[in-house]
Design a protein that fits this description.
This protein is mainly alpha-helical. The chain has one domain: Orthogonal Bundle (434 Repressor (Amino-terminal Domain)), CATH 1.10.260. The protein is built from six helices and no strands. The chain is globular. The chain starts with a helix and ends with a helix.
Length: 69
């Protein structure tokens, strides 16, 4: 998580808050930066928000592992 946060230009605490839902509506540039670091398209992020679980099929395995690292 530390590497992901720093590469996206956000603090690890901010990423933890986004991940846990304590920041319910993160800023678009923050989400875009995190998605880029994880190698996800914004379409894939949107699909996960609107259809949880189904986007993983389209994105491919490994996205959640990249977020955890």
């Amino acid at each position: 998580m530390l590497h992901t946060a720093l590469a996206a230009g956000v603090s690890p605490e901010t990423l933890r808050k986004i991940e846990s839902g304590r920041i319910a509506t993160p800023a678009f540039p923050t989400i875009a930066a995190i998605a880029e670091v994880l190698g996800l398209s914004l379409d894939a992020v949107w699909a996960e928000i609107t259809e949880p679980g189904r986007a993983a099929d389209r994105v491919g395995a490994g996205a959640s592992e990249r977020l955890a690292s």
